[in-house]
């Protein structure tokens, strides 16, 4: 029997340039965007049970800033392979999620995250593919994929529906977007 599952895909917020890539912190704008994202996720009840976060400083800071006390996740993991991971690696990690988990958040880097969303989304809610093409996948962007799967190991490219695509401009100014379909 298939269950409705969601993959929330988040590109880390704006990071400082220069220095050791793995240790780049968020900028003040990145911190602010991540904080607004957390409020947005809490308001929309986007609270995944499993978080898979790259171990890079900027992804950890994005997750920390986006997770005020109003958001709590059951399981948070920092797989080493998510650091600058391509779409195929993200796909393989998500396929390993426990089946009792319905919703997964991946916090990682571009181009891996945008390629993963494009690979997984076989369809989209009205206008979302166009929005994604128009804006690219800027830092701090959150996408929501809905899938009907009996188990995570059954995950296949094109099996998802892009039900949400939010850039910092969207969640900073938009009061009430529609939640993803269940």
CATH class: Alpha Beta
Instruction: Report the order of strands and helices.
Output: EHEHEHEHEHEEH
Biggest sheet: strands, sense, closure? 7 strands, mixed
- How far the N terminus sits from the C terminus, by CA atoms, comes to 15 Å
3D architecture notes:
The chain is an alpha/beta fold and about 180 residues long. It has one domain: Rossmann fold (3-Layer(aba) Sandwich), CATH 3.40.50. Helix content is about 30%, strand content about 25%. It contains 6 helices and 7 strands. A 7-stranded mixed β-sheet has the order 3-2-4-1-6-7-5. Strand 2, helix 2 and strand 3 form a beta-alpha-beta unit. Helix 1 (about 30-45) crosses helix 2 (about 55-65) and helix 3 crosses helix 4 (about 110-120). It is globular. The two termini are about 15 Å apart. About 40% of the residues are buried.
Task: Quickly describe the structure.
With 182 residues, the chain is an alpha/beta fold. The protein contains six helices and seven strands. It has a seven-stranded mixed sheet with strand order 3-2-4-1-6-7-5.
In terms of topology, how is this protein built?
Layout: E1 3-11, H1 28-43, E2 50-53, H2 57-65, E3 75-77, H3 87-95, E4 103-108, H4 112-120, E5 121-124, H5 128-135, E6 142-149, E7 160-166, H6 168-173
Parallel strand pairs: 1-4, 2-3, 2-4, 5-7
Antiparallel strand pairs: 1-6, 6-7
Helix pairs in contact: 1-2, 3-4
Keywords, separated by commas or semicolons:
alpha/beta; disordered C terminus; 7 strands; 6 helices; 182 residues; Rossmann fold; seven-stranded mixed beta sheet; globular
């Amino acid at each position: 029997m298939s269950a409705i599952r969601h993959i929330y895909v988040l590109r880390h917020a704006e990071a400082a340039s220069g220095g050791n890539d793995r240790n780049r912190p968020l900028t003040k704008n990145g911190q602010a965007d991540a904080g607004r994202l957390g409020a947005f996720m809490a308001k929309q009840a986007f609270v995944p049970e499993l978080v898979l976060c790259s171990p890079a400083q900027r992804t950890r800071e994005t997750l920390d800033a986006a997770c005020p006390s109003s958001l709590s996740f059951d399981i948070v993991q920092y797989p080493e392979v998510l650091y600058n991971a391509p779409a195929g690696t993200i796909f393989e990690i998500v396929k390993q999620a426990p089946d009792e988990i319905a919703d997964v958040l991946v916090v990682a880097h571009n181009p891996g995250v945008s390629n993963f969303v494009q690979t997984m989304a076989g369809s989209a809610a009205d206008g979302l593919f166009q929005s994604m093409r128009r804006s690219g996948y800027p830092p701090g962007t959150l996408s929501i994929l809905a899938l009907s799967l009996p188990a995570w190991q059954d995950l296949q490219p094109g099996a998802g529906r892009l039900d949400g695509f939010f850039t910092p401009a969207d969640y900073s100014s938009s009061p009430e977007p529609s939640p993803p379909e269940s």
